[in-house]
Design a protein that fits this description.
Length: about 80
Amino acid sequence: MTDNPRADSELILASDGGTLQRLTLMSTGNGAVLVDAAGIPVNPWEVELRYWPPEAEPALRRGGYLFDRSPDLELWCNCVD
């Protein structure tokens, strides 16, 4: 997206359901938080991450932006057959 390879390595793209936004990962006293171009914090439940650098993944997990989904997608029922 830019001629600066470092900028692309820090690129985080997120969707709010209607638009794609470029966000910046900031470290705070309470952990990691994503902010928009105006510096306004974006809550994890407001966006779905579309692209992030692999090195940012631990901080994004700690901030609640990424979470592990259960690998077992089999439906479960406690019905008596």
